[in-house]
């Protein structure tokens, strides 16, 4: 087995003090308060070996990384019908763009841009009695971790400045692809974005995408193997907005970023790795996180290609 | 080892007589003359086992599948500088769209849409003394197959109706991203699209993307391992125009289609598979070819995810 | 002087029973309840001669025609600074499109598409103590007509189905070009759309755009002559959404339509004419209204060109 | 009658030495050689009074102003069928944009953007035996001026750098809306752009758009009155690309600009005015020309609104 601890330590040290040209996300006031020197990495392998370094056990706002979790639960509950509500194509546009919805008649290009994740939240609300509690519970059972929680502060902060997301939700509703009340959908969406986890926790909760035999705390599969693979496929083509191609090209793993500065990447049958560094490049993805993962897959030759 | 012959035979028989709702490409007159009942499959594994069925040894026009070959040679000659001329992002638009070039200032989104492949041809012309001969020679040495050739008829047919491609080339030149004469660039581009191969030949020529130890007829590597992986990554995110996400989702392999009805797909470290069936779905990809590969990767569990 | 009564009577009779291929607006429930056989015309000349026929004294929902009134008051209060908040260019897109706002960074193309009128309402709210009352009062004094009023039913109906407008308003706010609370802005906007007038009342209230010497009930000019001419110019280039060119081409007068089926047109120094017929063509403009005005300006040779 | 000579002299002197922030067109090499301090104005009234100042009798390249002339002849030859080939709507986009053609399936938005003028040239070629000679002859007879001619140098210069126009023409042909050979169409189009006239000659040749009783050298009407008015309408909504609304707003007359720095404006029943100053604003319209016309219509109160 590869000496992951040695490899991540080396890259961590290489990158810790480089000139980080990224900028911390400031459109959500609460995120702008985070110390931007945080830098943590954690790997969990499918045989449950753990390797961490830096701020890997500090909580951070996982933001859009939670879009994988809402998608997973919606896919479980709705099955293949889900894809009538949201497509699986890369958008070629920024994460919060409204452009394509107009010609696509309210069907978002994929579940990992804001428009798509809002539709996924709408699907969940139609299924769940208490969406916020039920979804949190799903996450806790999935990760065998009762400590997971939303940050109330971040959730409120998202709400107070979420004009673009309110616009998206109303726009989609004008096409009939939001079934529930806008306020309810957005409130739920903002909470899902406000989930907080450590690098360690993130790399544990997404093990179900790496390990074909994964079962949750209750001993159940979360998705069929085929469904899990399909989520990996969408992650690869759509996980980094209009930088998805670049991530596939440089890193070569399915993955997802959040504006909190976290990135999770999955090597099927091998491991799940999480990097957290708050400063973002121009496309909204962690500057140092992208660099770390590129060096990591190069040194470990762990691309899926 | 899996019994590929049995599996492809079964799926071939399942699909041979289904109602094919696709339409043969008719915008290139010469392609419209092809018998649309052709249906062939060929697999070549990295340890050089071969499995074929149907019309797997008939020549067909590989069309856009040749974009992988021009890219490969340009990458070999130009190295990473190549990516200043063409990006690696999915476009979210049809194969011959001019839309994004206007805001992207003449840098095509990726080398697998027409705009990108035309820029790649321009790069090759700047490097090669006799572009058409030299490129054909590269293909023959790559596949250890002296029989490969262009179809003169198809090349002429492309020229006579290639207004959209002429528009693309001039549009890009207006931004300065074509360095050579338009007529020379387009003539070369039309010839590369007019390469003819059998399913067997296609699955042999792309072995270098599946086999890390591949060498050509002269005993040389074609690309570094990292470069080969990167081409696979671009194939996965961009190989099927605005249906790339769907192909990744359903099939889960890097691949490329052509309007001649061919599709090639690569399973790194395993095999290269080619399907040919001329009738195309609305996105311009072989209707039966897509179905075949979906069933094939499902039955063999050979997705990279 | 031309015999307007004879001319409008003739055209009215010609068109009354033609096959009207238009469709009544149904996206605002309350509008769908209107009798679609209504057909009225009224002309007021600048020397205060009146000519009417058909349902010219029935109230109808003037809808987007009110955008001229909100613009006029905002222009009066804000002066030329107004044009920093909204441009004066035709959009080349449908009335409720969000597309251009993304590249134009939240500055609507003109005040006669929904996006622009919403920004104008925001400007008014910043100036007025009681926006709804003050604006209504402005309209009454402008037209010397104390009977003007909003339809509460229509205003409520707009609200209940105004997702696209809510999206527009939030989208613009995300760029910082809405200063007040979204709810307040939209409530005011929906009320302005719900103004009810007869053809006669409409052709009276817009006399200030035809008559250089116009004064309101209090004896005041509403705008300078130059400002009034500028509003006419914007009406000509932008009054009919993506059919503005067609209206200028066929009718040749500045004008504005509403989805209630009304159209007002102004001949500077001559008259103001209003036509009402509820069924709309595909671009959202009154089918019969367009036909009427084309025949009218042809027979009277009253184009401004 | 107004003292036009005094008024234009005053404004000419006011503007002659202002800081001109415009830039001379440099994408056509030959145009970049023009002395950018040229500044001329000429008015011709419908009763044939003449007023000129500055460089009003120097020849300049009228460029896109010639689009009115090609349209006029095509309208004369083709009648209302012409509008099946080209629309009359403002585009909301730059003069050489390809964007809308894709969704509009090859029908240009209007005859005053390059795409539309190229289609108009194609229509003319289908009607004329010797397009270049016949069109030049039409212009000479229209203006009673045998001296009009093309600049061979400019025509060649356009050709050598006209990639964007070649792209447009091929793109439109791919939709079937160009009927003749691309080379023939573009050669003719480039020549029409290369017409040279003085301010005086321009304001004479367009008198037919101001004077309802105009006849050419052979005593014939050029268009019906209704057709001439329609051309004025299209000029008002589309004559200045994506600055058309601004020109209508500031100047209030139908008009057309060219990248040679000329602008012609028409006051129906009054006069035709031409201004020439080579430095262009960001939208491609003469910086000083726009200023001159704004001041001129303000001082003479000659807006059509």
Question: Tags for this entry?
Answer:
12% strand; 44% helix; five-stranded antiparallel β-sheet; homotetramer; three-stranded antiparallel β-sheet; 12 helices
What do these coordinates show?
- The structure is a homotetramer of 305-residue chains.
- Chain A is an alpha+beta fold and 305 residues long.
- Chain A has a single domain (4-300), classed as Beta-lactamase (3-Layer(aba) Sandwich).
- In chain A, the strands form three sheets. A five-stranded antiparallel sheet of chain A has the order 3-2-9-8-7, with helices on both faces. In chain A, strands 4-6-5 form a three-stranded antiparallel sheet. Chain A has a two-stranded antiparallel ribbon with strand order 1-10.
- Chain A is globular and about 50 Å long.
- Chain A has helices at 4-16, 66-78, 99-103, 114-127, 131-143, 152-160, 163-174, 182-193, 199-205, 225-238, 244-250, 287-300; strands spanning 23-24, 40-45, 50-54, 60-61, 149-150, 195-197, 255-257, 262-267, 271-276, 279-280.
- In chain A, 60% of the residues are buried.
- Chain A has twelve helices and ten strands.
- The longest helix of chain A is centred in the middle third of the chain and has 14 residues, at 114-127.
- Chains in contact: A-B, A-C, B-D, C-D.
- Chains A and B meet through helix 10 and helix 11 of A and helix 10 and helix 11 of B.
């Amino acid at each position: 087995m590869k000496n992951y601890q040695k490899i991540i330590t080396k890259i961590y040290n290489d990158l810790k003090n480089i000139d980080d040209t990224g900028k911390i996300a400031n459109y959500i006031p609460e995120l702008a308060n985070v110390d931007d020197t945080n830098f943590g990495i954690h790997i969990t392998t499918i045989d449950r070996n753990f390797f961490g370094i830096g701020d890997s056990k500090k909580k951070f706002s996982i933001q859009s990384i939670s879009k994988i979790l809402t998608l997973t639960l919606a896919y479980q509950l709705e099955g293949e019908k889900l894809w009538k509500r949201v497509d699986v194509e890369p958008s070629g546009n920024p994460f919060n763009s409204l452009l394509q919805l107009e010609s696509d008649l309210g069907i978002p290009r994929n579940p990992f841009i804001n428009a798509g994740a809002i539709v996924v939240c709408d699907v969940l609300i139609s299924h769940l009695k208490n969406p916020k509690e039920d979804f949190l519970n799903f996450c806790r059972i999935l990760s065998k971790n009762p400590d997971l929680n939303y940050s109330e502060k971040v959730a409120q902060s998202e709400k107070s400045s979420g004009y673009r997301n309110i616009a998206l939700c109303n726009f989609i509703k004008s096409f009939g692809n939001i079934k529930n009340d806008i306020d309810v959908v957005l409130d739920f969406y903002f909470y899902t974005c406000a989930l907080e986890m450590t690098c360690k926790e993130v790399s544990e909760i997404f093990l179900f995408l790496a390990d074909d035999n994964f079962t949750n705390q209750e001993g159940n599969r979360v998705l069929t193997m085929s469904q899990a693979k399909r989520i990996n496929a969408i992650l690869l083509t759509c996980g980094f907005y209009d930088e998805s191609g670049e991530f596939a090209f440089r890193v070569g793993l399915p993955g997802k970023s959040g504006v909190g500065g976290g990135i999770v990447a999955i090597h099927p049958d091998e491991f799940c790795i999480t990097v957290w560094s708050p400063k973002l490049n121009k496309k909204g993805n962690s500057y140092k996180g992208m660099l770390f993962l590129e060096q990591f897959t190069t040194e470990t030759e762990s691309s899926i290609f």
